[in-house]
Amino acid sequence: MSEYLFYPGCSMESSAKAYEASLEAVCKPLGISLKEIEDWNCCGATEYLSLDVTPAYSLIARNLALAEQQAEGTKTLMAACSACYLNLSKADHYMSEDQAFGKKINEALSAGGLHYDPGELIIRHLLDIIVNDIGLDKVKEKVVKPLTGLRVASYIGCMVPRPDYNHHSSDHEYPFELDDLLKALGAEVIDFPLKTACCGGHMTQIGPDTAFELIRRLISSAEQYKADVLVALCPMCQMNLDAFQGQMNGYFHTNYHMPILFFTQLMGVAFGEKPQNLGFGSEFVSAHEAMMRIGVQTPLPETPKPAPKKPSGLPMPPPRAKAGQKVTTGNEEATE
Amino acid sequence: MTEPVIVNDPPSAGPVTHEDLALLHEVALLTPGESRLEMCIQCGTCGGSCPSASAMDHTPRAIFAMLRAGMRKDVMKSNTPWMCVSCYYCTVRCPQEIHITDVMYTLKNMSLRENKFSNSTAPDFSRTFINLVETYGRSFEIGLAGVHNIKHFALRLPNMFPMAMGMLTKKGMSPLPPKRIKGMGQLKKILKRAKELEAE
To answer: Where are the domain boundaries for CATH 1.10.1060.10 in chain B?
Structure first.
């Protein structure tokens, strides 16, 4: 058993429950034991840094101080959310690099009776731990249901490979860890050119037009490569690409359907875990069809019945059918 | 031999004096660590790498030139730092290894303090986010999205309704705020002290 301190982050407990469930399901077979930091607080995402410096870093550093206190044996602090991972390592990095700054943050911490020694913890992302500590051989050993035939776009996003203060990632722009991991599960991994492009981050909330374009680029690229699913490793990326895919389609008048899953969900499937225990079915863009392609039955999406259209005032000619397309007129239900 | 042609700077720009570099140094000083901001060679790699450059009124390169020229007011009211998505492409690609993303955070801090940026959507989002964190110790995504969108994107609300419902049903998110962390008192003390230190 390898033990790690674990910082879950807020999303894991609200919007990314599928990530948490599937993480739990894959840790056991891989022999990863996670010790959650007791009474951790939000890392402030990118928002606190926008407002203030000292309070923002103090908010992050409280978690580091608690982790240092609670560390027994292990000094590795693991985060599964990219933004949390970056913030924790950012605070550690700048507190070490800039000693006066480190002192200042510790002075703030001391108001709450806490202290953090910069450089004391090693902050790492879940993917890094699975690929580099546990190793792909161990992962391959545990695969009972290879994902043969599933075409996957592996999407890393920004904050794990960049700025990568402690050089844990193989590359800033084209890292291969997630590709290798998914290949070890038997999946067919596409050579996804936008694997570290931006998902839009908080732009969905402050400049939706910009966000929709960034989301469109990723989804359309994955679709061009004929990926069945796109796999993410950050709750924010998953949320932006999945929950906002519908609005993006509306904005561009497109009709993309790209299921966005967490990489741990696919690991769980390959390890023979039941899809119900892996948070399948919580995605907005259903992965049911894609997963059925490799014979994995995930919960069916609820298909809301389209509201019956009222017949319009003027008699209109029926819409012409394109080759191979079924025409729906809206009043079929009444005639059936 | 012809006389060399002397091109005068536009009168508004004026010559760069020692005084003008004060702004550049101020920004560098407020950024944690070694920002290397004064090393900019104006190559434009940052703007070329930026996924949200099209939404910015000045590219990052232009902002750095403006900082060097001491154009305080124009930098403070620019939307550039607020459109930054923190993807760190510019930071890793910059040949001078300037911590561009961190400089953008500093510029956001400064423009809030000087109250020059007129569009409040982005600053309000940060403020609402942090108010919730300062109340509960955790972020409250549903509450944040609700408050923010009602205030700033009321016209988009009908489009968002199916998504909001999905958050509650499919994702099983709770519409109630998160449970306060046990050390809320401790966290408040830390933040209070941090804010005092920030003001010094």
So the answer is: 21-114
Comparing A59-63, A228-232, B119-123, B156-160, the range with the smallest average pLDDT is B156-160
CATH homologous superfamily of B21-114 equals: Alpha-helical ferredoxin (1.10.1060.10)
CA distances to A100, B35, B58, B104, B131 from B107, in Å: 21, 13, 13, 5, 21
Cβ atoms B66, B56 nearer than 8 A: no
The token duo for A118 is: 């910069």
Cβ-nearest to B86 among A93, A201, A246? A201
Say yes or no for a CB contact (<8 Å) between B181 and A39: yes
Contacts of A326 (CB under 8 A, 6+ apart): none
Q: Which residue in A225, A214, A157 sits closest to A191, CA to CA?
A: A225
The predicted-structure confidence for B160-179, as pLDDT tens digits, reads as follows 888 888 898 888 888 889 99
The two three-digit tokens of residue A8, written as one number:
């879950």
Structure token digits, residue A72: 């027994």
ipTM of the complex: 0.90
Exposure of A264 in the CB half-sphere (CA atoms within 13 A) = 31
Are residues A214 and B52, on separate chains, in Cβ contact within 8 Å?
yes
DSSP B32: S
pTM summary value: 0.89
In Å, how far is B115's CA from the nearest CA of chain A? 12
Q: Which range has the worst mean pLDDT, A172-181, A321-330, B20-29, B33-42?
A: A321-330
Q: Residues 6 or more apart from B158 whose CB is under 8 A from it?
A: none
* Residue A68 tokens, joined: 């240092």
- Coil vs helix vs strand at B78: coil
For residue A117, the distance in angstroms to the closest alpha carbon of chain B comes to 16
